Each structure stands twice: as C-alpha cells, then as structure tokens.
Amino acid sequence: MTGPLLIAAVLLVVSWTVATAMHLQERRPDWHWYLTGYPRTALRVVFTWRKVAHLNDLTVSHKPNRLLLGDLAVKGEPLRTKAPRCSFPRPTPNGLSLRVRLHAGQTPAPFLTAADALAHAWRMHAVRVVSPERGVVVITATASDPLAHPDRPMGEVSASLLSAVLGALETGGAWVMDFRRVPHWLIVGATRSGKSTLIARVITELAPQPVALVGIDCKGGMELGLFEQRLSVLATCRREATAVLGALVVDMQDRMRTCRAAGARSIWDLPEKERPVPVVVIVDELAELYLTNGSKEQRAEAEQCSTYLLRLAQLGAALGVHLLVAGQRVGSDLGPGVTALRAQLGGRICHRVNDPATAEMALGDLNKDAVAVAQSITEAEQGVAVTTGELGGWMRGRSQLTTPAQAQVTAAEYAGMAPRLPGVVRALEDLEGGGRA
Ligand SMILES: Nc1ncnc2c1ncn2[C@@H]1O[C@H](COP(=O)(O)OP(=O)(O)OP(=O)(O)O)[C@@H](O)[C@H]1O
C-alpha cells in the first residue's frame, strides 16, 4: 500500500513543482531565473572559465617565450596558460555578470571577439563585453532575448514626473526616458526604423502627466497631428515652428526671471504653487527645419529657427523646457546650427540607419563601440535602438509597439490635461492673423 502512496506523493510533488515553475516563468521570469537558471549557469561559468578562456585565447602564457624555439617548446616543459581572474558571477534579472581582471599586456579586444563563444559555452542567449576601466572587462550574459517582449520589462519602475517607460533594455530592465535626469534627447533612424512609434510611446506616457507637450511637425502635421488633442500647441510648417520656438524662448526668459527673484537655481527649487509647468518640445523630422530652397528669406527663417532651438537646448534644462528631436539624419550638411544643437542633446537613441555616418553622428562623440552595434541593427528589428545610458555607457533597447490608433485614443483621453501656454498660442494666432505660410 505504501508503494502506490509513495508514487502518488512523488507525482503530486513533481506536478506541483512543474506547475509552480511554469507559473513563475510566465508571471515572474526574473524570479524563475534567480531560482533555476542562475545557480546552474553560475556554476557552469565558474567550472568552465579556465577551459573557455584557454580555448578562446583569453589566457597568458605562464612561462616566458624564451623557452620556445619556433613553434616548439624546448626543455620539454609544457607551456602553462593562466586565465585572468574573474569574480563570482553576479545575478541580474535576466542573466549574470562577472568582472575579469586582465593580466599585464592583455587588452579587451580578444574578449570582445570571444563574446559569441562564451554565449555558446554558457548556454546563454547573448554575451556582451565592456571595459569600464583600464585593466578590467565586465562580461554580461543574458539568458533570453528581452527585446522579444518590450512590453514586459522586468523589475519595478517608479513612475515619476517627466519620465516615460519606452520598452525594455537588453538587460531585461525597463527602458526609461527621464527628462529630469537627461533633459534633451535626439532620436535618429532610417525610414520605417521605429522613430514615430517611439515618439508615440513617449507621448502616451507623458499624456497623463502635468506636462505641456509642444509638437513641431513640418511634414504638415501628418505624424504629430494624431495627438493634437493632448498637445498644447502644434506647429505644422517652419514659419509656425519659428513663431512657437520664439515664444518659448520668451517664456523661458520669464521663467528665468521668476527663478532669479526667488533665489532659485531651477524651477524645481521653486515652491510647487509658483512652479511653471514643464514643457517638452517634440520635433519630428529635424531636417525640415533646416532645409531651404536657397532664397534669402528661407535661409533667414531656418537660421532663426535653429538659433531658437539651440537657445532652448542651452538654457531649458533648469527651466523645465525639454527637447525631443527626431530625424533621419543630423549631419552638419543641414546647417552649422545642427552640430551645436546635437552637442546639447545628451540623450541619444539610434535606430537602424542607412549610412554609417548617421550612427557616427548620433553616437560617435559619446561612444565608439555603440556605433558598430547600431549599424548591425537589421531591417527586421523595427523598434530596436541603441540608447545612451548612465556614465557614458550604452545599451540596446526596443520600444513597446504603440500604434497610431492607440496613441490617438490616449491623446483624446487626456485632452483635458493639456496645459495652456498662452504666450505660445498667441504667437501662433498672431501668425494666423497675418496669414499662415
Ligand atoms: N517597437 C516596435 N515593435 C514592433 N514593431 C515596430 C516597433 N516600432 C516600429 N515598428 C513597426 O515598424 C513600422 C514603422 O515604424 P515607424 O513608423 O515608427 O518608423 P519611422 O522610423 O517613424 O518611419 P518614417 O521615418 O518613415 O516615419 C511600424 O508601422 C511598426 O509596424
């Protein structure tokens, strides 16, 4: 009797364990990883490190080369290789990471080359190698592709003013655009790479917040027009854009005076009741603001527009005026103001690009490694981008797909939240009175 009972009990325990594991995997993939995948993989890394390092030329020779004659080791002493010391793998929500201390004479290059081999040896989805300081490389391995489910980033994200959860990063964590931390952002990418989807996502996230959204879409408002109900102002041609940006510069000067009178260094130091509403200016297709037909009038307008944008970028951070600028290209060929503007846009997001120069322009001045990674994004990877992170680092991320219809619904839902910007609206109305372009 005890035999069947025992079998039944074992079956019960096994099925309960399997059910719990499946539930965890579905609901809390990070816990599932910590409890099952991480211990196994950490041990695999520790026990295979020496061998893997040896096979991938990550070791140094223990004995000096003077014992070698051509390819032969003389004196019959076997050459002993020494793997660099690595820390015990630290768990991350979707993988693990370890620090490797290089031997004298070693460089991070062979570790970068060996990334694929390490991923295979450790049965991981991908391995990334960075060198945060001289003599050290950090190897980060991810167990599954978090970019396959950008709508399900792991870990908690605290919702804060002026921050938007865009999707997931390759670490599995949330990809957050926080304008309080990084005040201005540049988004580049070829056509159909995911720029508009990302903008739609940002607007969807900011719509419920007490933030004024100003749209500048010189393609006749075709993209940002979808969100018009939630926008405080929408400019649909360069003439309107110049008027709107000029009025924002005046508004910014008012803010400056308010701060000075209160002895505050930024609007965030002002008492809440006196604090002006933060503004995010969204520019879709930057090139439209700079391109001219060569006429004197158009060149003057483009120059004026560029000066206003630059001024907002230079002074806006502390005064609660933020820029989110998107375009297919941001080259100096658009005009001299573009390079200066780009330097002010500290946050960079680079989708798939058509030419290496665009990736270089978007990321090259901040991080050279990131340029090569951005260039490797394929056409099938819509929404995937390389984004700059903290301390000059970078990361791949994928935005959560937000369709125009979804964004439109959200914009309509929060239409009543759109703060009024009387000075800016007046500037646009004055222009209409004088005849729109
Ligand atoms: N994060 C994403 N996940 C899945 N699919 C995406 C994502 N982002 C974009 N796509 C797909 O790619 C298509 C093109 O995206 P989007 O319109 O955002 O590109 P774009 O860079 O703005 O192009 P254009 O410059 O021509 O306006 C979308 O219709 C959508 O199907």
Automatic annotation (TrEMBL):
<keyword id="KW-0547">Nucleotide-binding</keyword>
<dbReference type="InterPro" id="IPR027417">
    <property type="entry name" value="P-loop_NTPase"/>
</dbReference>
<dbReference type="GO" id="GO:0051301">
    <property type="term" value="P:cell division"/>
</dbReference>
<keyword id="KW-0131">Cell cycle</keyword>
<dbReference type="Pfam" id="PF01580">
    <property type="entry name" value="FtsK_SpoIIIE"/>
</dbReference>
<dbReference type="InterPro" id="IPR050206">
    <property type="entry name" value="FtsK/SpoIIIE/SftA"/>
</dbReference>
<feature type="domain" description="FtsK">
    <location>
        <begin position="172"/>
        <end position="360"/>
    </location>
</feature>
<feature type="binding site">
    <location>
        <begin position="189"/>
        <end position="196"/>
    </location>
    <ligand>
        <name>ATP</name>
    </ligand>
</feature>
<protein>
    <submittedName>
        <fullName>Cell division protein FtsK</fullName>
    </submittedName>
</protein>
<dbReference type="InterPro" id="IPR002543">
    <property type="entry name" value="FtsK_dom"/>
</dbReference>
<keyword id="KW-0132">Cell division</keyword>
<dbReference type="InterPro" id="IPR003593">
    <property type="entry name" value="AAA+_ATPase"/>
</dbReference>
<keyword id="KW-0067">ATP-binding</keyword>
